[in-house]
Amino acid sequence: MSQPRQSRALIIVNTDFCGSDGEAKHGTRKGARREAEKLSKALSRLNYKVKLEHNKTAKEIEELYQQECGREHGEHFVSIISSHGEQGLVLGCDSEPVKLTWIFQTLASKKCPVLTKIPKIFFIQVTG
């Protein structure tokens, strides 16, 4: 009897931000790292294969979601993003935006067939 495939979770938490000049921007999001680590442990206990990523640029965030389209998934896919942002977008640690619609379209069945018929659950926490 084969083991069921593990459901996957991708957690991205950005706590430190800088502008294109390398100067600190937006302030540090204190406590966000600890919260993400707690979420990671909770999902692991629920038998999710968790990928926890810290301080990713906008380009790196986009690459992480594109990579999910080539991975095996179980019954669910959970995405958690904790960052600065505003309505409809999150910021990479480089203070560049990633549109949420881009993420949703990237994981849609047309572009990501491995996630067809697999529930996708998104938790997005942004501070302005």
From TrEMBL:
InterPro entries, A to Z: Caspase-like_dom_sf, Caspase-related_regulators, Pept_C14_caspase, Pept_C14_p20, Pept_C14A
Positions of the Caspase family p20 domain: 5-126
GO molecular function: cysteine-type endopeptidase activity
Entry-linked Gene3D superfamilies: 3.40.50.1460
GO terms under biological process: proteolysis
Protein family membership: Belongs to the peptidase C14A family.
Protein name, per record: Caspase family p20 domain-containing protein
Phylogenetic lineage: Eukaryota, Metazoa, Chordata, Craniata, Vertebrata
